[in-house]
Known about the structure:
The chain is α/β, with parallel strands linked by helices and 373 residues long. It has ten helices and twelve strands. It has helices at residues 14-23, 28-39, 54-60, 137-153, 188-199, 222-228, 243-249, 258-266, 290-303, 325-337; strands at 70-73, 83-88, 94-101, 107-110, 114-115, 133-134, 175-178, 211-215, 233-237, 276-282, 306-311, 341-344. The relative contact order is 0.13.
Amino acid sequence: MSAFANLDLASMPLPVLRETFVGAGFKKFRADQLFRWLHVQMERDLDAMSDLPKRLRAAVSEALPFPKLTVVHAPVSAIDGSQKLVLACADGQVIESVVMPMAGGWTTQCLSSQVGCKMGCDFCATSRIRVRRDLTAGEIVEQVAIACRMRAAEGKVRGGVSGGVSGPLAARPQNLVFMGMGEPLDNFTALVDAISILTDAKGFGFSPRRITVSTVGLAKRVPGLIAVHPNLHLAWSLTATTDEVRDRLMPVNRGVPIRRMVEVLEALPPSHHRKITFEYALLKGVNDSDADAERLADMALAVDAHINAIPFNVWPGAPYERPSRNRVRAFADRVSRFGASISLRESKGQDIGAACGQLAGEQEGAADSAPAG
């Protein structure tokens, strides 16, 4: 049996891949070569990896297949140019990622970490999908690779990637946000490994300051994430200022009440680079009162967080409504008067079901007919 049998090489950060190669009797630099093929050239055909000797390619062929996500559907928003990537995994499960053009010509990609989500947030369409499985680190990274390949094919290449690289890496998005399907910290090991791959200078080369991880509040996981990747940005999906309301909206709050998460954020080691954001979906008559605004401002000031207030993005069958423009503006003004930093943010891709809280595997049935390989 091959030393690589049943190993997921595409999910390994470079130091782990090197150890695996050396343990299998290969030189460390061979691991670097494979890592470059996977995460710079973004090649998934082993036969195309021309500088790998035949013996090594034969051994790698015994490992688990490289992740392959098939683009089932890729609608583009007529409003803001955002593109939703509906992707079929090798086992037919469907996930979604969104590539969003931003002001100044930058691009942000929203990544999924699970098929479905078990957090049960009442205002989120993804919560209606039962959790089928976690994504591997390789499948998380592959979402970025697909965006790179598509953008390179369309000629959407922007400068600023170090090392003068060409090919698909030169078309990478500038920012990554783990705000797609699933709770990233519920898939902790794969999340940490994927970020390690994405930030490796010999791979995608993302700065940690260009990556944001969003959580509903899995407080016990936050210090471990920051211990490995201290300069990541953190976003807390808060959406309520009292435990009574948040217990109803977000079941996670029953185990991790608001005060507990605030304490964890307050206790994080200082970083000049890390930013903390509160994501706050405004729901009509539920969490948009003046008292909510005042409590939200107090919490944000306690941890030096910026607030992204997002008027609810309605989806079919949603039990909530979006507040009026006047109510949204009054809420933001009141937060500001109490000294906190707040932005009103309209989610991109609303006309294609790609906005915050709308990702729900809408093309799931198409996975059965997606081309293989």
